[in-house]
Amino acid sequence: MTFLFLLLMGGGARHHAGGRTRICQNPIRLPSAASRPSATTGAPPAGRGSPSTSTTLPSSVPVLTPEHLEHVDRLAGSLDRDQAIWLSGYFAGLAGQGAGGAANGAATNGASAGLVEPSPAAAAPATRLLTILFGTDTGNSKELAGELRGAAKAQGIEATVADMADYKPRALKEEQDLLVVTSTHGEGDPPPNALGFFEFLAGRKAPKLAGVRFSVLSLGDSTYEHYCSAGKQIDARLEELGAERIADRVDCDVDYEDDAAAWIADVVAKLTPDEAPATTGAPSAAAVGTAPASGVAPATAHSKKHPFASAVLDNVVLTGRGSSKETRHVELSLEGSGLTYEPGDALGVVPLNDPALVDRLLERTQLSPDAPVTTKQGELPLREALTRTFEITAATPRFLDQWAELSGAKELQALKAGDAKARTAFFREHHVLDFVDRFPVAGIEAEQLVKGLRPLQPRLYSIASSLAAAPDEAHLTVSTVQYDLRDLGRTGVASGHLARLTGEDDTVPVYVQSNEHFRLPADDVPIIMVGAGTGVAPYRAFLQEREARGAAGKSWLVFGERNFRTDFLYQVEWQQLLKDGTLTKLDPVFSRDGATKSYVQHRLREKGAEVWAWLQDGARIYVCGDANAMAPDVHSALAEIAVEHGGLDREAADAHLTELQRDHRYLLDVY
Amino acid sequence: MTPTTKTTPDTVVEIDRSRDLSQPLEKLAPEERMKFESDYLAGSITTDLIDEITLAVDENNNKLMKFHGIYQQDDRDIRDERRHQKLEPFFTFMLRGRMPGGVCTAEQWLKIDELGRTYGNEQFRLTTRQTFQFHYLNRNALREVMLGLRDVGLDGKAACGDVARTVMSGVHPGLTKLHKQVYEQAQLASDHVIHKTSAYEEIWFGEKPKEPRGENEEPFYGKQYLPRKFKIGFAVPPSNDIDIYSQDLGFVAIASRGKLKGFNVVIGGGMGRADRAPETYPRLGDVIGYIDVDQLQPTLDAVMGVQRDFGDRVTRAHARFKYTIDDKGLDVIKGEIERRLGFELAPAKRFKFDSNGDDLGWRTGDDGLEHLTLFIESGRIIDRGERRLMSGLRAVAEAGLCVFRLTPNQSVILSDVRPEDRPKVEALLAEHGIDNAPKKGRSALRLNSMACVAMPTCGLAMAEAERYLPELITKIEVQLEKHGLTEDPITIRMTGCPNGCARPYIAEIALTGRAPGKYNLYLGAGFHGQRLNKMVRENVGEDVILEVLDETLGAYAKDRKEGERFGDFVVRAGFVAEVKEGRFFND
């Protein structure tokens, strides 16, 4: 899983992924991608994810009744970390007000409805069902769905939160109020796990939705041509099916927090019956997205907003000399962080920009490194702001607009007024630095430079280790993105940053991003793992875990890369795992060794009978790596195998694969 | 095979057979079982060749592949780097051909050149046993190389392994008529002693074995082959270029008026030893008698048969023929050979050697043809900068102007050149930056130098050899210049380990590697290989080596007698004690 990163160059797919950009683009392949949590309103299994959700309540607490305890327990089980933090602040605020909760009748505060036994008088007035549906790849939509639920609850409205990946679309016709949060993936596509939902909604079987009220929050990346396309499709389709739009769709760029918070406040206000005033002292919904409440956050609650400064334990180039690429193995320490993860999860990495690029920008703009500028973290000297807080590689439409105005350049103004395709093409060839280079603005001020820039985003990488094998560590497999643009060498923001972290005392801020769509099955279930390049990362975690558990299930790794000699990532580890029996079969395929290019899908076809036999034995098949070419090719190969070896016709084969996906037996983590 | 032998007609001596072939497998070294169970060297090589998880082969197959001429190696320069990268070592394979007497047709040369360019990192190497070897071969290319060699009648049989190795034959550009007769015998010998197993064709050419390999697959060797390697060579006096005393079995050509009559038989030579293991030592062969030409084949069978049956199969470090002889006694072994032959060997004939080096430059043979011996530093055939050796020799081969002969000193002779073609050869060489005036800018020491491959490909090397010796010689040349010895031929040899591939223990100056930058220094061998040298400094670096050489070379320049060789001088002057027998090498 992985990562995201903004790279604008010729050809190749881009992804709008929930406010982050992920790109996989030839000739550069990025590390494995993170998909994301299927969220549910149910309690996550103990031991997973954030410590706040795995806390077990004591069986008795002096000040609470058993009923209270039961409620709190149920609530705690349904919360993600941010919700828990938010609520801790909420309760602290409540206590600080001396509100006395139920004791003085403040139970009219709807927010408490789910928490304490409501008195009849305090029952929430909302009578309509609210469902919050999210479609996510990197987890941002899920996070926002949780915030939305919290905000609704604060207004006395209970909501059911569902992941499109798990939601039975036929239930749509039962919905009353429907709020949708979705990211966009690839060339305007839905998140991979939500594909089925989108197909159903677009198809003829989609029900009429008269009487349903809805609004859509759409996440995307404005550097892509099909910006927020998935959200736009849903928004249009729901209206077409007869639903009533209660608030306009909001399209959010990678710095989605403020826009999302505003949308949440807006829709929650519109859902709230007028007679239920919000009297709570809890933080306003608008504040939810940006900071935890005034309460006490647990010291160990490291999260995206509070990443942990992880020490770099090891940082080696995995690819041998002479390789056409550079792929690194980075070992990070989680010691003392309280962070835990499961095989399949991703690690969010908060990068710094390349100091050389920052220097170049400062030099070209003739700005003082010490000039103060406004950032989300407050006022900072320009150099620090450019290093830590802004994306300074790829440019965005907002930056284009801003720069067109500042420079007065005719070419930029034409692009500003022109069509999206031309802009997209231009962005491929022009990063922020190239705007500054080609359209200099004499006497520019520091604030003007940063005004069009968006906040620097963390990047996600699949974790390549298991805590069972490497306690207190998270290993990453990182492809260093390097390429030339306008005769100048460029590096990926996060991969470049990680590549520079070779000093003894280097640290990097990280957090865990859980990925419930990509989990190991029970120990005795056979698994087929298909991965290309850094897509092999989660399988290293899987096999480490299975080895530690002594899992009896068979396992088969199909790994693709370019050259045997240099690019056989973790070769000696696989050899050892084969020897000790943890790995049953290994099929490495190299595309640049022979006269004919051979990829993972070719090997799957060659061994089709065996693949089919494994699947018939109940094997799970995992696919991780390139979403653009590999995943569809593997999908086709699997369909052909079902035809050739399963005796199905093509349509039945496709249906079979869809069924496998729905049963979580065919799992994708592609980017 | 009878366990007894006669030393004199009326004395029967019991030979100790507690460590040889007569013993059950479980008492012998593990390699003996490995050979026995290998189905005549097939092992599971065929399966390993298509293993997709590694570019290596397993340990047993690695050992078996030596019998097919192949050593698994890895690039030691990057071994550690790759370990950190979680990649297996950069495995490559060395494939050594069988080329009796070092005679190579232009067609064969072109094929070797082509295979080296295509699969061997654009180079190949001439060896100290007059053959060629490729380095850097990818395991998956081995079959292609084997098939390519077959196309020109070459193979890799017995270039390594516990069998008779490629048979050497002295090359004397001045005595070409005699050389041809000796070479013929060498080739016959090579074909006679080669192993016969059909596993070779099955593995490398994909041929189906005609029938399951049975008891008669190897009529001479049997399932366990020899206890260790076995080296055979033919010398043509007065040149001892093949270092006859280093061979397990040597034949010194005895001729009369240019016609080959027979051979003096020399047994028990061998170089290999181990550091800090005084029970191992180099040994020079002993001349045990004379045979007529037509007794060659029975003599091969008898001598090799003795070693096959009595050689030590318990301790591999003690398995060479030289130890068998010293264990049992030279007389006993000679007697057993004669018993097997059914006659006593005639007394040895007189012969005289004057050098073990190459006679560089153009020579006219007694057949009227021209022969050019080119100095090839460390035997490496490669294009380097202006000196495009590989391309130049290819051009000569393409023009069909000569036959190639590889010398035991890793040089090459462009042989059998018609006098009218000589200018063409010279022009082609000049065109490729190859000077054929070897003495120009090179000391006689350099021209008598030899080094093994060592780093980075050889798994045994503990120090550099081929990559370092030229550089060291440049420093010694400063001293030679100072002492006025630049024109004096002195032999110098360097190996990366004590095993002796470049026959170091019979060089006047020798260095064997102990650790990176550290060598044992030996002095005092005979100029034409007739006396072993002796260690004078152990495990020392370049500064000490140069210091000792400066002192001894200085004394040599000042105090030597007329015609006295450096090796003889250091013994006479007391810098080093004379080694009279291998057994006393470590004293």
Please summarize what this structure is.
The complex is a heterodimer of chains A (671) and B (587). By secondary structure, chain A is of the alpha/beta class.
Describe the secondary structure blueprint for this structure.
The complex is a heterodimer of chains A (671) and B (587).
Chain A: E1 13-17, E2 20-24, H1 51-54, H2 66-78, H3 81-96, E3 130-135, H4 140-154, E4 159-163, E5 177-183, H5 195-202, E6 213-219, H6 229-240, E7 244-245, E8 250-252, H7 257-271, H8 285-288, E9 308-317, E10 327-333, E11 346-349, H9 355-365, E12 372-375, E13 378-381, H10 382-388, H11 397-407, H12 410-417, H13 420-429, H14 432-438, H15 446-451, E14 459-462, E15 473-479, E16 482-485, E17 488-491, H16 493-500, E18 507-513, E19 527-532, H17 537-549, E20 555-561, H18 564-567, H19 571-579, E21 585-590, H20 600-606, H21 608-616, E22 620-625, H22 630-646, H23 650-662, E23 666-670
Parallel strand pairs in A: 3-4, 3-5, 5-6, 6-7, 6-8, 19-20, 19-22, 20-21, 22-23
Antiparallel strand pairs in A: 1-2, 9-10, 9-18, 10-15, 11-14, 11-18, 12-13, 16-17
Chain B: E1 4-8, E2 11-14, H1 30-36, H2 45-48, H3 59-66, E3 70-74, H4 79-84, E4 91-96, E5 103-104, H5 106-119, E6 124-126, E7 132-137, H6 142-151, E8 168-169, H7 176-193, H8 199-205, E9 232-235, E10 249-256, E11 259-267, E12 286-292, H9 296-310, H10 321-328, H11 330-341, E13 361-364, E14 370-374, E15 380-381, E16 383-384, E17 387-388, H12 389-398, E18 403-406, E19 412-417, H13 422-431, H14 444-447, E20 449-451, H15 469-483, E21 492-495, E22 509-515, E23 518-523, E24 534-540, H16 542-559, H17 566-572
Parallel strand pairs in B: 8-9, 9-10, 20-21, 21-22
Antiparallel strand pairs in B: 1-2, 3-4, 4-7, 5-18, 6-7, 6-15, 10-11, 11-12, 13-14, 14-19, 16-17, 18-19, 22-23, 23-24
